[in-house]
Amino acid sequence: MFYKFFNSLDKLVHFNEAKAHCDIPCGIYDPHQAQLGALTVIRMIDLMKGLPADHHDGELAYHNSLSRYIAVKEEHAELVKKEVRVIYGDFIKEEHLVKYPELQPLVFKIMKLGSKVRQGVERQDALDLLTAVNRFAEIFWEIKGIPTKKAKAPYAPAEEVVYPVL
Amino acid sequence: MCRIYRIKGESLYPEYRNGDYVITAWSPFSFKRLHPGDVIAFTHPDYGLLIKQISQIDRQRSTLEVRGTVLESVDSRTFGPIPLQSVQGRVFWHIKAPRGKRE
């Protein structure tokens, strides 16, 4: 009854809003972009290594493909770093770091691996990046109270990814 | 002085929810009666008018630490303690929106 009264009054006089403020945008965080970024880096390394060694007949096409793979690898390695940085900076609180002491070194590791896969073409480095990002995702969903499962991505490079069970 | 506010956001979930109304009261002497656990409306230079729960009051009773009840809440863990002067009022009446009809 009181609510109806205040609600009607609100429509007439428009009360001020007191914000019970969460972060902006409120609670919309998801490590999936970072995971896709890490998968893309692996895929680009695979494609680069799959280019034919004898490329003299189509040198221009070879360089074109190689350049594109490198550019996408660069972009997605940076995407991984950016997405993880945003979640770490905006969502993670001090109590999460206390509960998950591995979180801080894990984020540091992701930043370093993100740079390493830009500099080089070692598949193992890219796999290590995906493993670290998957662990980050696991912790993130655990904080949110959402269970996770591991499954192989249904597309190349078909590596194992942590998914939330919704 | 009494004020009516409509709550926007869920940082005090589940007790205070988006669309609820609160009525606050404030007088120059109200600060002496503030206690941890009280819900207050206050202004912040970056975030505007906010509503949070007091978690701590300093010994000189000049600043307050405020918290939301959910981990994602932006509160004193993000912006530090707030000065007494920013307090707009203490909630003394909470009008809850009917379940399922909150906006």
Please describe what this structure looks like.
The complex is a heterodimer of chains A (166) and B (103). Chain A has helices at residues 2-13, 32-50, 59-91, 94-99, 103-119, 123-143, and strands at 16-19, 148-152, 160-164. Chain A starts with a helix and ends with a strand. By secondary structure, chain A is mainly alpha-helical. Chain A contains 6 helices and 3 strands, in the order αβαααααββ. In chain A, 65% of the residues lie in helices and 8% in strands. Chain A has one domain (31-164): Up-down Bundle (Four Helix Bundle (Hemerythrin (Met), subunit A)), CATH 1.20.120. A two-stranded antiparallel ribbon of chain A has the order 2-3. Chain A is elongated and about 80 Å long. With 103 residues, chain B is mainly β. Chain B has one domain: Umud Fragment, subunit A (Ribbon). Chain B has one helix at residues 76-79; strands spanning 2-8, 21-25, 39-44, 48-57, 63-67, 82-83, 87-95. A 7-stranded antiparallel β-sheet of chain B has the order 1-2-7-3-4-5-6. The longest helix of chain B is centred in the last third of the chain and has 4 residues, at 76-79. Chain B starts with a strand and ends in an 8-residue tail after the last strand. The chains are: A mainly alpha (166), B mainly beta (103). At the A-B interface, helix 1, strand 1 and helix 4 of A face strand 1 and strand 4 of B.
